[in-house]
Design brief:
By secondary structure, this protein is an all-alpha fold. The protein has one domain: Amino acid/polyamine transporter I (Up-down Bundle), CATH 1.20.1740. Helices cover about 65% and strands about 0% of the residues. Helix 6 (about 115-150) runs parallel beside helix 17 (about 445-470) and helix 8 packs across helix 9. The termini are far apart. It comes from Vigna radiata var. radiata (Mung bean).
């Protein structure tokens, strides 16, 4: 019998190889397909080809195929921080594309959409629609950047926005640049949610109780306290994946009440003496500040980028199945529905109320102008959906703050937080947000300031991070494009922040939200 040359057994054929069947490895993951195509670099497992395995018996073949898949997975194994298993954002990593869609939609649609018609009242039709469209496309691009940079370095996952900023800008500068706006965005959004939620609960009670109600109603501050207490109770859920059900409720309620609000507004008779000319003041400088604050409101309507990496970190990730695939799939679905909510509210709300739009937004206008024209049941349902959405959004926006508190505790004690410590942090955060809301009850002005101060998180920093981490060729289109977008974002942030501060100082305590006529 003629012996087969040994070199033939280990030779790599020049023709394309047949894919190795995918089977389960000892780690429970599916093994990758056969080694890379001809022309790519050699790997330690490239010799385990179907040609090599052909003369070997089935048991030995199975062992070698399993070993190949295991080696390829281990070769790209992500180095995890043991402390992540104790923190609420990274405690559970069983997320998927559906969870990503729920979380992104819950974070991307909410009360900020209700004040978009206020921005249109100061900008007018042309500048309002143009600004909203540019902001939507811009933030969608920066979201794609964050999704891609989550695992930009092999073997490393940037689970939080601050971690990615440190990798791009350096340890100390990254903290200084990203920590304040992300924490401010969480706390500021929580405060605004308490304002909206408390006022909406008050209106819901008034509608349900009716004009003949004889009970002594709670004051506005007491309704804030009721909403804060409910939020604290729901915040006891341990981690980000555990609130996926709440995010689903928040997403469904947001889509529902957003659609109801603009349909009810455009279906009713418009107020008399309505005008679509942009609001302006006698002093040109004051009009400029108003326009800057309006642009800040539009910027704030696209929130959620401070949560993108955190949402992606809840998903399992391997070399063959990276987390960016389900994350981007869920994000695309979420932002399709976000566009279907934001644009109709902004355009329909401004068409229905024009320059008579109150500072509280379209929900305030609906109650002020049409509370007697729409059935109490529909109005009550609309306000109840807003309350549910605010309660759900409070949880996902508070999670980064909870994570920061617990990270500081675990790094000092080198042990996970007990249930009492975790509950204490969340109670503390809830009531701090409540006291801030009582002290600063200015929704539209607060939205403009929030949009200005946190704008770099959404529009500027991701562009800088892409250039610093991915390092595209210098002076290429990609290089110029991201640098220009980043510096434009910084400039807009300064301008919108000044407009928001001016609006707060100018309006003071005169702004009363949800005040019916």
């Amino acid at each position: 019998m003629e012996e087969r040359p040994e070199t033939e057994l280990i030779s790599i054929p020049a023709t394309p190889r047949v894919s190795t069947p995918e089977i389960l490895t000892p780690s429970g993951q599916r093994s990758p397909r056969a080694a890379s195509k001809e022309g790519k670099s050699w790997t330690p497992t490239s010799f385990i080809s179907p040609r090599f395995l052909s003369p070997i018996g089935t048991p030995m073949k199975r062992v070698l195929v399993n070993m190949k898949g295991y080696l390829e997975e281990v070769g790209h194994l992500t180095k995890l921080n043991p402390q992540d298993a104790w923190l609420p954002i990274t405690e559970s990593r069983n997320g998927n594309a559906h969870y990503a869609a729920f979380h992104n939609l819950n974070a991307g649609v909410g009360f900020q959409a209700l004040v978009l018609p206020v921005a249109f009242a100061y900008l007018g039709w042309s500048w309002g629609i143009l600004s909203l469209t540019i902001a939507y496309c811009w933030q969608l691009y920066t979201l794609w950047i964050l999704v891609q940079l989550h695992e930009a370095v092999p073997g490393k996952r940037y689970n939080r926005y601050v971690e990615l900023a440190q990798a791009a800008f350096g340890e100390r500068l990254g903290v200084w640049l990203a920590l304040f706006p992300t924490v401010y965005l969480s706390a500021g959004t929580a405060t605004a949610l308490i304002l909206i939620g408390g006022e909406t609960m008050k209106l819901f009670f008034q509608i349900v109780c009716g004009p003949t109600c004889t009970s002594n109603p709670l004051t506005t501050v007491e309704w804030y306290l009721v909403f804060t207490s409910l939020s604290i109770v729901l915040s006891q859920l341990p981690n980000l994946n555990s609130i996926a059900g709440l995010s689903l409720i928040g997403a469904v309620t947001a889509i529902t009440y957003s659609t109801m609000v603009w349909i009810l507004s455009v279906s009713q008779q418009r107020p008399p003496s309505i005008s679509y000319e942009p609001l302006s003041l006698s002093q040109p400088s004051a009009s400029v500040f108003l326009a800057m604050n309006a642009l800040g409101i539009i910027a704030f309507s696209f929130r959620g980028h401070n949560l993108a990496l955190e949402i992606q970190s809840t998903m399992p990730s391997t070399f063959k199945h990276p987390a960016r695939v389900p994350m981007w799939k869920g994000a695309k679905v979420a932002y399709f529905f976000i566009a279907m909510c934001l644009f109709p509210i902004a355009i329909g709300g401004f068409w229905a109320y024009g320059n008579q739009m109150p500072p509280g937004g379209i929900l305030t206008a609906l109650y002020a102008f049409h509370s007697h024209d729409i059935s109490r049941g529909i109005l009550a349902l609309t306000f109840l959906l807003v309350v549910f959405n605010c309660l759900s959004s409070f949880q996902i926006y508070s999670m980064p703050a909870f994570d920061s508190f617990e990270a500081g505790y675990t790094s000092r004690t080198n042990r996970p937080c007990s249930i009492w410590v975790r509950s204490g942090f969340r109670v503390f955060f809830g009531f701090v947000s409540f006291f801030i809301g009582v002290a600063l009850p200015f929704l539209s002005s607060l939205a403009g300031l929030l949009g200005g101060l946190t704008l770099p998180v959404t529009f500027a920093y991701p562009c800088f991070m892409w250039v610093l981490i991915k390092q595209p060729p210098k002076y290429s289109f990609n290089w110029y494009f991201n640098w220009i977008l980043g510096w434009l974002g910084v400039a807009f942030s300064l301008a919108f922040s000044i407009g928001g501060i001016w609006s707060i100082v100018n309006d003071g305590l005169k702004l009363k939200f949800f005040k019916p006529n």
